[in-house]
Write a structure and sequence with these properties.
Layout: E1 5-11, E2 28-29, E3 32-33, H1 34-44, E4 48-55, H2 60-69, E5 76-81, H3 86-95, E6 103-108, H4 116-129, E7 131-137, E8 142-145, E9 151-155, E10 161-163, E11 167-170, H5 171-184, H6 191-198, E12 203-206, H7 217-233
Length: 235
Amino acid sequence: MDNNLRVVVAAAGSGRRMGSKVKKQYLLLDHKPILSYCIEVLENSPLVEKIIIVAHPQEVEYCKKEIAEKYGYQKVDQVVAGGPERQDSVYEGLKVLGSDTVWAAVQDGARPFLTAELLKNLFEAAVIYGAAIPGIMAGDTLKKIDQEGMVVQTLARSTIAAVQTPQVFDYHKLMSAYERALQDNFHATDDAALYEKYAGPVKVINGDPANIKITHPQDLLWAEAVINARKNHRV
């Protein structure tokens, strides 16, 4: 198995919903920036060859100093400036991975609970299917509603998954999908949507319920509880 896996970590978001002056990816979780958690897992993975962090244009130097250099991450090759939207930012990161890249993963910098096991499972699935993403099957009943908030349809929850990152792809197919989306002015909320539209099918494997994205203040409280539980009970 070719372990040429290179990772783009998306950390250029504004974090407006967090309601904090500090961007969510730099908020401290047990005395460490949230962003450092996923990078540490990637750094220690034998699968990962190179990491590109995409930061807000005004925070590139800060990210280099306070994340890459401070924690001594050897696999962080560059910190590059992102664009106005997540899709633009990821594209900037993908472009500098290098044309000799075989497999590319995209990881949200605000997901601190990435595990080596999930990364390995995703990579193995991507090698078989060309693209793989983690998903959590819906537990609640889901309703499709109209603009007035009226129910249009009850969806079959057995066919609905909430997807996470990292998402792993054939690099050249993903790049082609990004380039076609740019030509078509097509925007999506995750990388798999671009791959689905322009490159091919995407395999969904079991995600991790703990692999949350820190978006709202209550998410940070939940993350702190997880950290404390793991410290106290080693779960």
